[in-house]
C-alpha cells in the first residue's frame, strides 16, 4: 500500500492528480509530487536515502542497495560529491530505490516497461531483479550503450525496439524524489549556503535538487543554495529548466570540460564528459562555497557472463537462507572450510548474477556494515 498523502502536479499544464501519477496524460509534461506530511527528521541509523523517509513518499515496503551517503572530496576550494560511489556507479540509483519501492508496494510481480536512457535503465534493472519483470524499449539506437544492453539482458530484461506503450521514462516524479536526496545530504552535512553545480543533459537532476531545496524550505529548514545547471557549448539548455526560474543555466566549452575530465582521471576518478562539465563551470564562476555533483563513473558494474553456480556458491546460498543473511565474514565462519577471500569473491559473483542482494546497516556513527541476503529472502523492510 502507498500513502495517500500526496498530490501529483504537472509542472507544464498545472493539472493535479490524487496519489502518485508517473506521467501527465494531458500534456506529457513533467509531474512532481506534493507531499502533505513532510518533516525534517533524519534517521541516523539508516545508511541510505531512506534516512530521509519523513521527506519522501511513504511505501509499505522499501528497497535499498546502499545508495546515498556518497562522499565529498576536496579539489582546491571545490567540494566534489562522488555519486559514482553508488551501487551501480550512478546517481540514478537514488531514483531506482524509489521506483523499485513503488512497484514492490503497489504492483508486486508486475512487468515494468522502461524507456531506455543511459545509466537509468542500467540502474533500475539492478534494483528490480526479483521484484518485477523488466522490458526495456530502445527507441533511439544512436544513443544506446551496447555494454549496458548486454548488462540488461544478463539481468533478465527483455529488449524491445521502438517506444513501449505506458512505459516508464527517466522523466518521472519518483526519479525527482530520489534525486532530491542529494540536497538533503548536503544540508545534513552543513552545506546550506552556496552553489551546487550539476550536469544538465536532460535538466532533471537540476530540477530535482531545486525540489529538494524547496521541500526543505517548506518544513522550515532555511537555506541559501543556488542550483547551477551546466551544459556543453553547441547544445541547447534543456527545455524543462524554463519552468523554474530559480535554476541558473550556463554553458561551458568542450575543451574546458575535457581538461577537467583528464584532471579527474589523473586523480583516480573516471567519469564522462558531461559529468565533468560542472567542475569546469565552478572554476570559471568562482569556487567559493561550491559543490560539484559528479554523477556517474565511465565504467559499469556487470554480472559475470555465463555465470554458473559452483559448489561454494550453492553452499553460500544455502547458508544465507538458513541464517537469513549475513556478512562475508559470518558466512565464511559458518562454512568453515573455505578461504575468506574465496567466500567474498563468490558473494560478489552471486550478487552480480542477481542471485544475492546486499544491504547496509550502520555501526557506530557512520560505519557501514554490508550484509548479504539470498534473493529469495525479503527484499526490504520498513526502517
From TrEMBL:
It comes from the Archaea. Coiled coil: none annotated. InterPro entries: TrpB-like_PALP_sf, WH-like_DNA-bd_sf, WH_DNA-bd_sf. Signal peptide: none annotated. This is Pyridoxal-5'-phosphate-dependent protein subunit beta. It comes from Fervidicoccus fontis.
Amino acid at each position: 500500500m502507498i500513502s495517500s498523502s500526496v498530490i501529483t502536479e504537472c509542472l507544464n499544464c498545472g493539472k493535479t492528480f490524487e496519489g502518485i501519477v508517473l506521467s501527465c496524460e494531458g500534456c506529457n509534461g513533467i509531474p512532481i509530487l506534493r507531499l502533505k506530511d513532510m518533516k525534517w527528521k533524519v534517521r541516523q541509523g539508516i545508511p541510505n536515502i531512506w534516512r530521509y523517509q519523513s521527506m519522501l513518499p511513504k511505501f509499505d515496503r522499501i528497497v535499498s542497495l546502499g545508495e546515498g551517503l556518497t562522499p565529498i572530496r576536496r579539489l582546491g576550494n571545490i567540494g566534489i560529491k562522488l555519486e559514482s560511489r553508488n551501487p551501480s556507479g550512478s546517481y540514478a540509483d537514488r531514483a531506482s530505490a524509489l521506483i523499485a519501492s513503488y512497484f514492490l508496494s503497489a504492483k508486486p510481480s508486475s512487468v515494468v516497461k522502461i524507456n531506455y536512457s543511459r545509466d537509468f535503465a542500467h540502474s533500475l534493472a539492478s534494483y528490480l531483479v526479483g521484484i518485477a519483470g523488466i522490458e526495456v524499449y530502445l527507441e533511439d539506437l544512436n544513443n544506446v550503450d551496447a555494454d549496458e544492453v548486454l548488462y540488461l539482458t544478463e539481468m533478465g530484461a527483455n529488449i524491445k525496439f521502438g517506444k513501449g506503450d505506458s512505459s516508464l521514462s527517466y522523466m518521472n516524479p519518483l526519479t525527482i524524489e530520489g534525486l532530491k536526496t542529494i540536497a538533503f545530504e548536503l544540508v545534513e552535512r552543513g552545506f546550506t549556503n552556496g552553489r551546487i553545480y550539476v550536469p544538465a543533459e536532460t535538466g532533471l537532476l537540476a530540477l530535482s535538487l531545486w525540489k529538494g531545496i524547496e521541500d526543505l524550505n517548506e518544513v522550515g529548514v532555511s537555506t541559501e543554495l543556488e542550483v547551477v545547471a551546466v551544459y556543453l557549448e553547441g547544445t541547447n539548455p534543456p527545455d524543462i529548466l524554463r519552468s523554474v526560474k530559480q535554476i541558473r543555466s550556463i554553458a561551458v566549452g568542450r575543451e574546458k570540460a575535457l581538461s577537467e575530465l583528464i584532471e579527474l582521471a589523473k586523480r583516480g576518478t573516471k567519469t564522462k564528459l558531461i559529468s565533468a562539465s560542472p567542475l569546469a563551470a565552478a572554476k570559471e564562476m568562482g569556487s567559493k562555497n561550491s559543490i560539484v555533483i559528479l554523477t556517474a563513473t565511465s565504467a559499469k558494474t556487470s554480472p559475470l557472463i555465463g555465470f554458473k553456480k559452483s559448489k561454494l556458491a550453492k553452499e553460500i546460498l544455502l547458508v544465507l537462507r538458513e541464517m537469513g543473511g549475513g556478512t562475508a565474514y559470518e558466512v565464511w565462519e559458518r562454512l568453515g572450510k573455505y578461504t575468506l577471500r574465496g567466500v567474498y569473491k563468490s558473494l560478489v559473483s552471486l550478487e552480480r548474477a542477481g542471485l544475492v542482494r546486499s544491504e547496509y546497516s550502520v555501526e557506530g556513527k557512520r560505519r557501514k556494515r554490508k550484509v548479504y541476503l539470498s534473493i529469495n529472502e525479503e527484499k526490504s523492510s520498513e526502517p
